[in-house]
Design brief:
- This protein is mostly helical.
- The protein has one domain.
- Helix content is 77%, strand content 0%.
- It contains 4 helices and no strands.
- The longest helix has 29 residues, at 4-32.
- The radius of gyration is 16 Å and the shape is elongated.
Length: 129
């Protein structure tokens, strides 16, 4: 994969893939451990990284995936605003429950599409060797 754009796309989708997987694990940990602030903070770290990656380098995504990236950003924009508002309201300790309603649900299909693109590029690279 000597094409510079392809290499940058591989790097971006790889970073998105790893952060999406870690975010997924953090969300399971949050659900499995009483929905506490401790785990909500961990989840926020990875969600913020994903949002930042898309905002800074989303233009490198293939055109058909750019809307998926923007769908994630839209979700995280609302999620982080609600997260910040609740943190400000209750000033939680690590073991306090940290739950807020959010009708802007996580765009699972968008995340799946981005993960699949990483896997696709990775396969192309393996077969090119």
């Amino acid at each position: 994969m000597s094409d510079p754009l392809s290499s940058k796309q591989f790097e971006l989708t790889g970073q998105l893939y790893m952060n999406l997987k870690r975010s997924e694990t953090a969300y399971k940990e949050y659900l499995g451990n009483g929905k506490t602030f401790r785990y909500a903070r961990i989840l926020r770290v990875y969600n913020e990284k994903i949002r930042q990656l898309v905002m800074e380098k989303g233009y490198l995504l293939p055109h058909h995936l750019q809307q998926d990236g923007l769908d994630l950003v839209s979700h995280y924009d609302v999620w982080m605003q609600k997260w910040d508002e609740l943190k400000e309201q209750i000033n939680p300790s690590p073991d306090d429950e940290f739950v807020f309603p959010n009708s802007v649900t996580f765009p699972k299909e968008a995340a799946r599409h981005l993960e699949q693109e990483y896997e696709r590029i990775k396969q192309v690279m393996v077969h090119a060797e």
